[in-house]
Each structure stands twice: as structure tokens, then as C-alpha cells.
Amino acid sequence: DKKILGLKRTERVLPVGAFLTVVGEV
Amino acid sequence: VTRVNRLNDLAQLLDAERLPLVVTISGKVASENPINCEITGLKSVIVEERVNKLYLKKKEEEKCKCAIKQKEKCKRATKPQKTCNDADYWTLHSEPSDSWTLHSKSISCNTKEVPWYLDDGTDHVHVVGARGATDFGYTAVRSKFDE
Predict the structure, then answer these.
(1) Is pLDDT larger for residue B141 or for residue B14?
(2) CB pair distance less than 8 Å for B145 and A11
(3) Nearest Cβ partner of A22 from B31, B48, B118?
(4) Interface pTM (ipTM) of the complex?
């Protein structure tokens, strides 16, 4: 016995303008 | 540690030092062709979209794992009998038999990324492979529910 409620869509984003610090190899 | 204050000083560092170098840089995220995000409404350089199906499932009465001949004895008792091998028997049977519980099932998970860089106003540095970095974090999260 199941009742379908719907779809949940989730966006996780890195937006333009965000201030970011990264450590990496050149 | 050699320290430079601006991204446009980084080139001098690269000329003087032996490669590879490990550097820490800071700046604002930018891109020539950002992605227009539907749910957050933001222009972004990395977008992860997850779709989950939400549904209610009728909670079925759990079967006692005791032997059938011991079941009646268990039901009358106020606490599990030593003869009952299922430690969760009373917890399971204390729930209403017609209750519904919320479940979620993953349908899809897609990630899009466009070439992007960090800009501090003096210059910019392209960042590659950031998603594989430890503690990489998405700074904005939003969900939408479609019935």
C-alpha cells in the first residue's frame, strides 16, 4: 500500500559572486 | 611560506618558484557562461540537481519472530519474555497498524559545471577539479516540491 505524494527537486549550487577560498596545486 | 597579496602577483611567484606549488587563493566566483538555475534563480558555475520521489507507505504489522507456539504468551506479557528472540517485538506492535510513514526514493542526481575562475579585482585564476576537494561546499541550497 503506497500513496505517491510527488517529486522533490533540490538544487545545490555554487553561485556567481560567492566569495571562495581554495587550496590547490598549480 | 612566500606570501603575495593579490592574484596578479601570483605570476611573479610562479616565475620564481619550482613547480608544482600548493597555493591558497581567495576571490569571487565568476564565469563567462554561467548556468541559469531554475529553482534557486541564481547564476551558478556548479549545479547539482537531485530528484526524490516522496511517498507514504502503510506500515505493515510486523511479524513476531517468536515461534508460533510462543506468540500468545508474548502478547499477554507486559514485557518481552525470555523466550522471545525479537527484542523489538513490543515496540513494533505498539504502533497503530494503519499508520503511514513517509519515505523518499532517489530518482536522479545530475551535476553540471561550466569553466569558472576566482577574481579578486586584480586578476583571475581558473579553478579545476574543485568538486573533488575536501570540504567543498555548495553555498546555496533550495528545494521545490511538485505534487
Answers:
(1) B141
(2) no
(3) B118
(4) 0.89
